Amino acid sequence: MNRWLNLVFNRLGKHQAENGSRGEASRHAKRGAGAKSFSFSRLVFVVTMIFLFLPLGVLVVSSFNDATSMSWAGFSLRWYQRLLVERELWRSLQNSAIIALSSALSATVIGTFGAIGINWYRFKFRSYIQTISFLPMILPEIIVGVSLSIFFASLGIPLGLFSIYIAHTSFNIPFVYLLVTARLHEFDFAIIEAAHDLGATEKQVLFKVTLPVCLPGIIAGFLTAVTLSLEDFVITFFVAGPGSTTLPIFIFSAITRRGGMTPVISALSVVMILGTVVLTYLLRNFLKYIAAK
After folding, report:
1. Residue percentage of the chain with pLDDT more than 90
2. How far is Cα 6 from Cα 4, in angstroms, rounded to an integer?
3. Do residues 170 and 148 touch, judged by C-beta distance below 8 A?
4. Which of 7, 66, 157, 181 could tie 152 with a disulfide, CB 3.0–4.6 Å?
5. Judgement on whether residues 47 and 129 belong to the same structural domain of the protein
6. CA distance to 12, 144, 257, per residue, from 270 (Å)
């Protein structure tokens, strides 16, 4: 009987000791979590997020402000109504959309085939071409804009939508080239050899093997080119002519002409932010689907 009681007490003591150690560990974990919640890195993260998104919040609030100044005068949708009748604004947006889509498509085709050719084939001056292809990314935009303006003037090409299209295509090619090259570095060349062993021609390998594998990089390059073309101001300012106003140039002209950001521009910015968020979410899911295949 005494032995049985001693055994029970020993087990109870061990159980209490284990519970005590677990309780102590949980208390230490809670302390660590509390200390971690007040860490310097988290503080920097919160401050950075506030710094990045506070201007967007002010922009959204000002678009619903009934007054043109920053002082709140009441909730109003009149700036969004006025946005619908701004013909010059929509014309500039149309020009930006046409140039962005056309230049991004051209840059995607040139950059994709350039990346495949440079990375998979060995030829003379290959390393020099690789270095030169990154120059538009490294050079300041003002230098690129001035050089393109001089180039068009020397060839007698009038400044307009066509000159903007050429300029945007030229500085978008390196970005597409870089993204497709990154995809090619993950590519298993044994697939190409297997396709050749099965009797596939170079054309069949290119369009049925290489391009489908590179499709996520190609789509990413196209979307990057569209974004860079839509937001570019410096290069476009030097190569634009009469009647070829893009949206960034229109916004700059509206701000300088009226002495500050107008509520109509704020309303347009809110619409573009919402459109970008929705488009990014849809394309993110689409790219996941493509990558999974």
Report:
1. 14
2. 5
3. yes
4. 157
5. no
6. 66, 31, 21
